[in-house]
Amino acid sequence: MNNDDDIFRRLGTEREVLTVSQLNARARRLLEEVFPQVWVEGELSNLARPSSGHLYFTLKDSGAQVRCALFRQNAARVRMDLRDGLLVRARGRVSLYEGRGDYQMILDALEPAGDGALRQAFEALKLRLQNEGLFAAERKRPLPSHPVRIGVITSPSGAAVRDIISVFGRRAPFIELVISPTAVQGRNAAPQIVQALERADRAGFDALILARGGGSLEDLWPFNEEIVARAVAACRTPVVSAVGHETDVSISDFVADLRAPTPSAAAELLSPDTPAMLRQLERFQRQLQQCMKTRLSQDRLRLEGLRRRLRHPGERLAQQSQRLDELDMRLQRAWGQRLEQRRLQLNHLQGRLQHQHPERMLRLLHERLALLRQRLPRAMEHQLQQRRQRLESTAQGLHLISPLATLGRGYSILLNQQGQAVRRQQDARPGERLQARLAEGELTLRVEPDEPHTLSLLD
Protein backbone atom coordinates (compact mmCIF):
# COMPACT_ATOMS: atom_id res chain seq x y z
CA MET A 1 0.00 0.00 0.00
CA ASN A 2 2.98 2.34 -0.46
CA ASN A 3 2.23 3.09 -4.14
CA ASP A 4 -0.69 5.51 -4.59
CA ASP A 5 -1.39 4.32 -8.16
CA ASP A 6 -1.71 0.72 -6.96
CA ILE A 7 -4.03 1.88 -4.20
CA PHE A 8 -6.49 3.53 -6.57
CA ARG A 9 -6.29 0.69 -9.18
CA ARG A 10 -7.16 -2.01 -6.63
CA LEU A 11 -10.29 -0.15 -5.50
CA GLY A 12 -12.14 -1.24 -8.67
CA THR A 13 -10.84 -4.83 -8.84
CA GLU A 14 -10.45 -6.00 -5.25
CA ARG A 15 -12.73 -5.94 -2.28
CA GLU A 16 -10.45 -3.91 -0.07
CA VAL A 17 -12.07 -2.67 3.12
CA LEU A 18 -10.85 0.80 4.06
CA THR A 19 -11.02 2.58 7.37
CA VAL A 20 -12.61 6.01 7.40
CA SER A 21 -9.19 7.61 7.90
CA GLN A 22 -7.77 5.74 4.89
CA LEU A 23 -10.73 6.74 2.73
CA ASN A 24 -10.42 10.43 3.65
CA ALA A 25 -6.64 10.41 3.19
CA ARG A 26 -6.92 8.93 -0.31
CA ALA A 27 -9.71 11.32 -1.22
CA ARG A 28 -7.61 14.28 -0.05
CA ARG A 29 -4.60 13.18 -2.14
CA LEU A 30 -6.78 12.66 -5.19
CA LEU A 31 -8.38 16.13 -4.89
CA GLU A 32 -5.03 17.87 -4.39
CA GLU A 33 -3.53 16.11 -7.43
CA VAL A 34 -6.44 16.95 -9.74
CA PHE A 35 -6.92 20.54 -8.45
CA PRO A 36 -3.43 21.77 -7.38
CA GLN A 37 -4.39 25.42 -7.99
CA VAL A 38 -7.67 26.98 -9.11
CA TRP A 39 -9.34 30.41 -9.03
CA VAL A 40 -12.88 30.57 -7.66
CA GLU A 41 -15.19 33.60 -7.59
CA GLY A 42 -17.94 33.82 -5.02
CA GLU A 43 -19.54 35.68 -2.14
CA LEU A 44 -18.05 35.63 1.38
CA SER A 45 -20.18 34.28 4.22
CA ASN A 46 -19.70 32.80 7.71
CA LEU A 47 -16.40 34.71 8.12
CA ALA A 48 -14.54 33.61 11.27
CA ARG A 49 -11.37 35.18 12.73
CA PRO A 50 -9.94 33.02 15.57
CA SER A 51 -7.08 34.24 17.74
CA SER A 52 -4.63 32.08 15.76
CA GLY A 53 -4.73 34.62 12.90
CA HIS A 54 -6.18 32.13 10.41
CA LEU A 55 -9.34 33.00 8.45
CA TYR A 56 -12.21 30.57 7.84
CA PHE A 57 -15.21 31.35 5.64
CA THR A 58 -17.56 30.02 2.97
CA LEU A 59 -17.58 30.99 -0.70
CA LYS A 60 -21.02 30.69 -2.27
CA ASP A 61 -23.05 31.58 -5.31
CA SER A 62 -26.74 31.15 -6.08
CA GLY A 63 -26.48 27.35 -6.34
CA ALA A 64 -23.59 26.05 -4.19
CA GLN A 65 -21.00 26.79 -1.55
CA VAL A 66 -17.54 25.59 -0.50
CA ARG A 67 -15.62 25.93 2.77
CA CYS A 68 -12.31 27.84 2.63
CA ALA A 69 -9.29 28.26 4.92
CA LEU A 70 -6.73 31.09 4.62
CA PHE A 71 -3.85 30.51 7.02
CA ARG A 72 -2.11 33.28 8.93
CA GLN A 73 0.98 33.82 6.74
CA ASN A 74 -1.23 34.31 3.67
CA ALA A 75 -3.98 36.17 5.53
CA ALA A 76 -1.44 38.82 6.58
CA ARG A 77 -0.97 39.80 2.91
CA VAL A 78 -4.68 40.51 2.36
CA ARG A 79 -5.29 44.28 2.53
CA MET A 80 -9.04 44.17 1.88
CA ASP A 81 -11.64 44.81 4.54
CA LEU A 82 -13.22 41.34 4.53
CA ARG A 83 -16.90 41.07 5.45
CA ASP A 84 -19.83 38.80 4.76
CA GLY A 85 -21.44 39.46 1.38
CA LEU A 86 -18.20 40.69 -0.30
CA LEU A 87 -17.62 39.36 -3.83
CA VAL A 88 -14.05 38.04 -4.09
CA ARG A 89 -11.75 35.87 -6.17
CA ALA A 90 -9.80 33.20 -4.28
CA ARG A 91 -6.79 31.15 -5.39
CA GLY A 92 -5.80 27.85 -3.81
CA ARG A 93 -5.85 24.07 -3.94
CA VAL A 94 -8.85 21.82 -3.43
CA SER A 95 -8.43 19.54 -0.44
CA LEU A 96 -10.33 17.63 2.20
CA TYR A 97 -10.28 18.10 5.97
CA GLU A 98 -9.78 14.49 7.03
CA GLY A 99 -10.96 14.96 10.61
CA ARG A 100 -14.52 15.80 9.53
CA GLY A 101 -14.53 14.60 5.95
CA ASP A 102 -15.27 18.17 4.80
CA TYR A 103 -14.46 19.19 1.24
CA GLN A 104 -12.64 22.55 1.33
CA MET A 105 -10.19 24.92 -0.36
CA ILE A 106 -6.82 25.86 1.13
CA LEU A 107 -6.23 29.40 -0.16
CA ASP A 108 -3.03 31.37 -0.71
CA ALA A 109 -4.44 34.57 -2.29
CA LEU A 110 -7.59 36.66 -2.10
CA GLU A 111 -8.58 39.73 -4.14
CA PRO A 112 -11.73 41.71 -4.99
CA ALA A 113 -13.74 40.33 -7.87
CA GLY A 114 -13.32 43.63 -9.72
CA ASP A 115 -9.53 43.41 -9.60
CA GLY A 116 -9.32 41.50 -12.86
CA ALA A 117 -10.70 44.35 -14.95
CA LEU A 118 -8.43 46.85 -13.23
CA ARG A 119 -5.44 44.60 -13.76
CA GLN A 120 -6.19 44.34 -17.48
CA ALA A 121 -6.47 48.14 -17.74
CA PHE A 122 -3.20 48.46 -15.81
CA GLU A 123 -1.33 46.12 -18.16
CA ALA A 124 -2.79 47.77 -21.28
CA LEU A 125 -1.72 51.28 -20.17
CA LYS A 126 1.67 49.99 -19.06
CA LEU A 127 2.32 48.42 -22.49
CA ARG A 128 1.20 51.56 -24.35
CA LEU A 129 3.37 53.95 -22.29
CA GLN A 130 6.30 51.57 -22.52
CA ASN A 131 6.03 51.53 -26.30
CA GLU A 132 6.06 55.35 -26.24
CA GLY A 133 9.38 55.26 -24.38
CA LEU A 134 8.15 56.79 -21.10
CA PHE A 135 9.85 53.99 -19.11
CA ALA A 136 13.20 54.21 -20.93
CA ALA A 137 16.28 54.29 -18.73
CA GLU A 138 17.84 57.16 -20.69
CA ARG A 139 14.95 59.39 -19.57
CA LYS A 140 15.76 58.86 -15.90
CA ARG A 141 17.50 61.77 -14.21
CA PRO A 142 19.93 61.28 -11.32
CA LEU A 143 18.83 62.37 -7.87
CA PRO A 144 20.66 65.31 -6.25
CA SER A 145 23.38 64.17 -3.85
CA HIS A 146 22.87 67.11 -1.45
CA PRO A 147 19.32 68.48 -1.85
CA VAL A 148 18.26 71.64 0.00
CA ARG A 149 14.51 71.87 -0.79
CA ILE A 150 12.28 68.87 -1.47
CA GLY A 151 8.60 68.91 -2.44
CA VAL A 152 6.31 66.15 -1.16
CA ILE A 153 3.11 65.45 -3.12
CA THR A 154 0.81 63.46 -0.82
CA SER A 155 -2.12 63.69 1.55
CA PRO A 156 -1.25 66.02 4.45
CA SER A 157 -3.12 63.77 6.90
CA GLY A 158 -1.81 60.36 5.82
CA ALA A 159 0.79 58.11 7.43
CA ALA A 160 3.12 58.56 4.43
CA VAL A 161 3.83 62.25 5.15
CA ARG A 162 4.51 61.48 8.83
CA ASP A 163 7.00 58.76 7.87
CA ILE A 164 8.79 61.10 5.44
CA ILE A 165 9.02 63.95 7.97
CA SER A 166 10.30 61.53 10.62
CA VAL A 167 13.10 60.17 8.40
CA PHE A 168 14.26 63.65 7.29
CA GLY A 169 14.13 64.90 10.88
CA ARG A 170 16.38 62.05 11.95
CA ARG A 171 18.81 61.93 9.02
CA ALA A 172 18.90 65.46 7.56
CA PRO A 173 16.95 68.05 9.58
CA PHE A 174 18.55 70.89 7.60
CA ILE A 175 16.61 69.96 4.41
CA GLU A 176 13.49 72.06 3.82
CA LEU A 177 10.36 69.99 3.17
CA VAL A 178 7.34 71.57 1.48
CA ILE A 179 4.08 69.59 1.35
CA SER A 180 1.98 69.98 -1.78
CA PRO A 181 -1.35 68.60 -0.51
CA THR A 182 -3.57 66.42 -2.69
CA ALA A 183 -6.11 63.65 -2.41
CA VAL A 184 -4.51 60.25 -2.98
CA GLN A 185 -7.64 58.13 -3.23
CA GLY A 186 -11.03 58.47 -4.89
CA ARG A 187 -12.50 59.70 -8.17
CA ASN A 188 -11.08 63.24 -7.94
CA ALA A 189 -7.62 62.21 -6.78
CA ALA A 190 -5.94 61.93 -10.21
CA PRO A 191 -6.66 65.56 -11.33
CA GLN A 192 -5.55 66.86 -7.93
CA ILE A 193 -2.31 64.87 -8.14
CA VAL A 194 -1.63 66.35 -11.59
CA GLN A 195 -2.20 69.89 -10.31
CA ALA A 196 0.03 69.27 -7.29
CA LEU A 197 2.82 67.90 -9.52
CA GLU A 198 2.65 70.88 -11.87
CA ARG A 199 2.60 73.32 -8.94
CA ALA A 200 5.58 71.66 -7.27
CA ASP A 201 7.54 71.41 -10.53
CA ARG A 202 7.27 75.19 -10.96
CA ALA A 203 8.42 75.87 -7.37
CA GLY A 204 12.08 75.08 -8.09
CA PHE A 205 12.63 72.12 -5.77
CA ASP A 206 15.73 69.95 -5.95
CA ALA A 207 13.58 66.79 -6.03
CA LEU A 208 9.96 65.68 -5.65
CA ILE A 209 8.47 62.74 -3.73
CA LEU A 210 5.14 61.36 -4.93
CA ALA A 211 3.95 59.29 -1.96
CA ARG A 212 1.04 57.32 -0.59
CA GLY A 213 0.64 54.50 1.92
CA GLY A 214 -0.47 50.99 1.08
CA GLY A 215 -3.91 49.89 -0.04
CA SER A 216 -5.84 47.74 -2.47
CA LEU A 217 -5.55 48.06 -6.24
CA GLU A 218 -8.67 50.24 -6.24
CA ASP A 219 -7.19 52.51 -3.54
CA LEU A 220 -3.95 52.97 -5.49
CA TRP A 221 -5.66 53.39 -8.87
CA PRO A 222 -5.20 57.22 -9.14
CA PHE A 223 -1.47 56.53 -9.53
CA ASN A 224 -2.27 54.22 -12.47
CA GLU A 225 -4.15 56.94 -14.39
CA GLU A 226 -2.66 58.07 -17.69
CA ILE A 227 -2.90 61.79 -16.81
CA VAL A 228 -0.83 61.20 -13.66
CA ALA A 229 1.77 59.17 -15.55
CA ARG A 230 2.16 61.88 -18.20
CA ALA A 231 2.34 64.60 -15.51
CA VAL A 232 5.21 62.71 -13.82
CA ALA A 233 6.97 62.31 -17.18
CA ALA A 234 6.58 66.04 -17.92
CA CYS A 235 8.24 67.15 -14.65
CA ARG A 236 11.59 68.86 -15.07
CA THR A 237 12.41 68.10 -11.42
CA PRO A 238 13.60 64.57 -10.54
CA VAL A 239 10.66 62.55 -9.15
CA VAL A 240 10.80 59.65 -6.70
CA SER A 241 7.64 57.51 -6.71
CA ALA A 242 6.85 55.94 -3.31
CA VAL A 243 3.34 54.54 -3.71
CA GLY A 244 2.09 51.73 -1.45
CA HIS A 245 4.15 48.98 0.14
CA GLU A 246 7.09 47.03 -1.28
CA THR A 247 4.84 44.61 -3.18
CA ASP A 248 2.67 47.37 -4.73
CA VAL A 249 3.60 48.55 -8.23
CA SER A 250 1.97 51.48 -10.03
CA ILE A 251 2.33 53.14 -13.45
CA SER A 252 3.84 56.15 -11.65
CA ASP A 253 6.70 53.92 -10.43
CA PHE A 254 7.69 53.08 -14.03
CA VAL A 255 7.53 56.70 -15.27
CA ALA A 256 9.30 58.30 -12.28
CA ASP A 257 13.06 58.77 -12.21
CA LEU A 258 13.30 56.34 -9.30
CA ARG A 259 10.91 53.99 -7.51
CA ALA A 260 11.12 53.65 -3.74
CA PRO A 261 9.45 50.62 -2.08
CA THR A 262 7.93 52.79 0.70
CA PRO A 263 7.62 56.51 1.55
CA SER A 264 10.22 56.05 4.30
CA ALA A 265 12.64 54.52 1.79
CA ALA A 266 12.13 57.53 -0.53
CA ALA A 267 13.07 59.86 2.30
CA GLU A 268 16.20 57.80 3.03
CA LEU A 269 17.21 57.87 -0.64
CA LEU A 270 17.03 61.68 -0.77
CA SER A 271 18.36 62.50 2.71
CA PRO A 272 22.13 62.31 3.07
CA ASP A 273 23.26 60.50 6.17
CA THR A 274 24.52 63.40 8.33
CA PRO A 275 26.60 61.25 10.73
CA ALA A 276 28.24 59.53 7.75
CA MET A 277 29.02 62.91 6.16
CA LEU A 278 30.58 64.12 9.40
CA ARG A 279 32.63 60.94 9.68
CA GLN A 280 33.83 61.38 6.10
CA LEU A 281 34.72 65.03 6.78
CA GLU A 282 36.71 64.03 9.86
CA ARG A 283 38.48 61.35 7.84
CA PHE A 284 39.42 63.90 5.16
CA GLN A 285 40.58 66.30 7.86
CA ARG A 286 42.85 63.64 9.39
CA GLN A 287 44.21 62.76 5.97
CA LEU A 288 44.94 66.42 5.23
CA GLN A 289 46.67 66.91 8.56
CA GLN A 290 48.74 63.78 8.02
CA CYS A 291 49.72 64.91 4.52
CA MET A 292 50.72 68.33 5.88
CA LYS A 293 52.78 66.76 8.66
CA THR A 294 54.47 64.43 6.22
CA ARG A 295 55.25 67.24 3.82
CA LEU A 296 56.61 69.50 6.59
CA SER A 297 58.67 66.67 7.99
CA GLN A 298 60.15 65.94 4.57
CA ASP A 299 60.95 69.60 3.95
CA ARG A 300 62.47 69.92 7.42
CA LEU A 301 64.68 66.91 6.85
CA ARG A 302 65.72 68.23 3.48
CA LEU A 303 66.56 71.62 5.01
CA GLU A 304 68.56 70.04 7.80
CA GLY A 305 70.44 67.97 5.27
CA LEU A 306 71.34 71.04 3.31
CA ARG A 307 72.49 72.81 6.47
CA ARG A 308 74.72 69.93 7.44
CA ARG A 309 76.24 69.89 4.02
CA LEU A 310 77.15 73.59 4.28
CA ARG A 311 78.73 73.52 7.77
CA HIS A 312 82.49 73.20 8.52
CA PRO A 313 83.50 69.90 10.16
CA GLY A 314 85.18 71.73 13.03
CA GLU A 315 81.96 73.54 13.82
CA ARG A 316 80.12 70.26 13.89
CA LEU A 317 82.70 68.78 16.30
CA ALA A 318 82.41 71.79 18.59
CA GLN A 319 78.69 71.50 18.57
CA GLN A 320 78.86 67.81 19.34
CA SER A 321 81.23 68.44 22.24
CA GLN A 322 78.91 71.11 23.58
CA ARG A 323 76.00 68.74 23.16
CA LEU A 324 77.85 66.07 25.10
CA ASP A 325 78.50 68.46 28.00
CA GLU A 326 74.85 69.50 27.97
CA LEU A 327 73.70 65.90 28.11
CA ASP A 328 76.06 65.16 30.99
CA MET A 329 74.68 68.07 33.01
CA ARG A 330 71.10 67.09 32.16
CA LEU A 331 71.84 63.54 33.33
CA GLN A 332 73.13 64.76 36.67
CA ARG A 333 70.16 67.08 37.13
CA ALA A 334 67.75 64.34 36.12
CA TRP A 335 69.33 61.90 38.58
CA GLY A 336 69.05 64.42 41.41
CA GLN A 337 65.46 65.25 40.48
CA ARG A 338 64.60 61.54 40.37
CA LEU A 339 65.98 60.98 43.84
CA GLU A 340 64.09 64.01 45.15
CA GLN A 341 60.87 62.79 43.53
CA ARG A 342 61.26 59.38 45.12
CA ARG A 343 61.85 60.99 48.51
CA LEU A 344 58.77 63.19 48.15
CA GLN A 345 56.73 60.23 46.99
CA LEU A 346 57.77 58.23 50.03
CA ASN A 347 56.79 61.09 52.34
CA HIS A 348 53.47 61.43 50.55
CA LEU A 349 52.68 57.74 50.89
CA GLN A 350 53.52 57.84 54.60
CA GLY A 351 51.17 60.81 55.01
CA ARG A 352 48.39 59.00 53.13
CA LEU A 353 48.89 55.95 55.29
CA GLN A 354 48.39 58.08 58.39
CA HIS A 355 45.44 59.85 56.77
CA GLN A 356 43.68 56.57 55.98
CA HIS A 357 43.78 55.25 59.54
CA PRO A 358 40.50 53.34 60.29
CA GLU A 359 39.75 55.27 63.50
CA ARG A 360 39.96 58.62 61.72
CA MET A 361 37.82 57.38 58.83
CA LEU A 362 35.11 56.15 61.23
CA ARG A 363 35.04 59.50 63.00
CA LEU A 364 34.63 61.36 59.69
CA LEU A 365 31.90 59.00 58.56
CA HIS A 366 29.97 59.49 61.81
CA GLU A 367 30.18 63.26 61.39
CA ARG A 368 28.97 63.03 57.82
CA LEU A 369 26.09 60.74 58.80
CA ALA A 370 24.92 63.22 61.44
CA LEU A 371 25.07 66.04 58.89
CA LEU A 372 23.06 64.04 56.34
CA ARG A 373 20.42 63.20 58.94
CA GLN A 374 19.95 66.90 59.54
CA ARG A 375 19.70 67.71 55.80
CA LEU A 376 17.38 64.85 54.84
CA PRO A 377 14.05 66.27 56.26
CA ARG A 378 14.73 69.70 54.73
CA ALA A 379 15.54 68.19 51.34
CA MET A 380 12.40 66.03 51.40
CA GLU A 381 10.20 69.00 52.29
CA HIS A 382 11.81 71.13 49.58
CA GLN A 383 11.36 68.37 46.96
CA LEU A 384 7.70 67.82 47.89
CA GLN A 385 7.03 71.56 47.63
CA GLN A 386 8.59 71.71 44.14
CA ARG A 387 6.58 68.68 42.95
CA ARG A 388 3.38 70.17 44.38
CA GLN A 389 3.97 73.46 42.53
CA ARG A 390 4.78 71.63 39.29
CA LEU A 391 1.59 69.53 39.60
CA GLU A 392 -0.54 72.65 40.12
CA SER A 393 1.08 74.38 37.12
CA THR A 394 0.53 71.32 34.90
CA ALA A 395 -3.11 71.03 35.97
CA GLN A 396 -3.69 74.70 35.12
CA GLY A 397 -2.06 74.21 31.68
CA LEU A 398 -4.17 71.14 30.94
CA HIS A 399 -7.32 73.02 31.88
CA LEU A 400 -6.43 75.86 29.47
CA ILE A 401 -6.05 73.51 26.46
CA SER A 402 -8.84 71.09 27.38
CA PRO A 403 -11.60 70.66 24.76
CA LEU A 404 -14.10 70.89 27.65
CA ALA A 405 -12.94 74.47 28.29
CA THR A 406 -13.70 75.28 24.65
CA LEU A 407 -17.15 73.74 25.02
CA GLY A 408 -17.70 75.81 28.15
CA ARG A 409 -17.37 79.00 26.07
CA GLY A 410 -20.46 78.07 24.02
CA TYR A 411 -18.97 75.89 21.28
CA SER A 412 -20.13 72.38 20.42
CA ILE A 413 -18.76 69.31 18.59
CA LEU A 414 -20.80 67.53 15.90
CA LEU A 415 -20.26 63.76 15.73
CA ASN A 416 -21.63 61.40 13.07
CA GLN A 417 -23.01 57.94 13.83
CA GLN A 418 -19.48 56.48 13.68
CA GLY A 419 -18.32 58.92 16.39
CA GLN A 420 -16.20 60.96 13.96
CA ALA A 421 -16.14 64.78 14.08
CA VAL A 422 -17.99 66.59 11.27
CA ARG A 423 -15.70 69.40 10.02
CA ARG A 424 -17.22 70.24 6.62
CA GLN A 425 -20.70 70.51 5.19
CA GLN A 426 -19.87 67.76 2.68
CA ASP A 427 -19.23 65.30 5.56
CA ALA A 428 -22.98 65.28 6.44
CA ARG A 429 -25.68 63.69 4.32
CA PRO A 430 -29.34 64.88 4.22
CA GLY A 431 -31.39 62.94 6.71
CA GLU A 432 -28.33 61.80 8.67
CA ARG A 433 -28.50 61.97 12.45
CA LEU A 434 -25.75 63.84 14.22
CA GLN A 435 -24.84 64.12 17.89
CA ALA A 436 -23.99 67.60 19.20
CA ARG A 437 -21.80 67.48 22.30
CA LEU A 438 -22.14 70.56 24.53
CA ALA A 439 -20.39 71.67 27.68
CA GLU A 440 -23.26 70.10 29.63
CA GLY A 441 -25.15 67.30 27.94
CA GLU A 442 -25.73 66.33 24.31
CA LEU A 443 -28.31 67.02 21.56
CA THR A 444 -29.46 64.71 18.74
CA LEU A 445 -29.83 66.58 15.42
CA ARG A 446 -30.94 65.64 11.92
CA VAL A 447 -29.56 67.15 8.67
CA GLU A 448 -32.40 68.70 6.63
CA PRO A 449 -32.28 68.21 2.82
CA ASP A 450 -32.27 71.95 2.13
CA GLU A 451 -29.35 73.67 0.41
CA PRO A 452 -27.25 74.52 2.23
CA HIS A 453 -27.88 71.76 4.80
CA THR A 454 -29.66 72.84 7.95
CA LEU A 455 -30.00 71.01 11.25
CA SER A 456 -33.16 70.31 13.20
CA LEU A 457 -33.40 69.17 16.81
CA LEU A 458 -34.90 65.70 17.29
CA ASP A 459 -37.22 65.06 20.20
TrEMBL record:
Pfam families: Exonuc_VII_L, tRNA_anti_2. The keyword Nuclease applies. The keyword Repeat does not apply. InterPro entries: Exonuc_VII_L (IPR003753), Exonuc_VII_lsu_C (IPR020579), OB-fold_nuc-bd_dom (IPR025824). Bidirectionally degrades single-stranded DNA into large acid-insoluble oligonucleotides, which are then degraded further into small acid-soluble oligonucleotides. Belongs to the XseA family. This is Exodeoxyribonuclease 7 large subunit. It comes from Halopseudomonas pertucinogena. The gene is xseA.
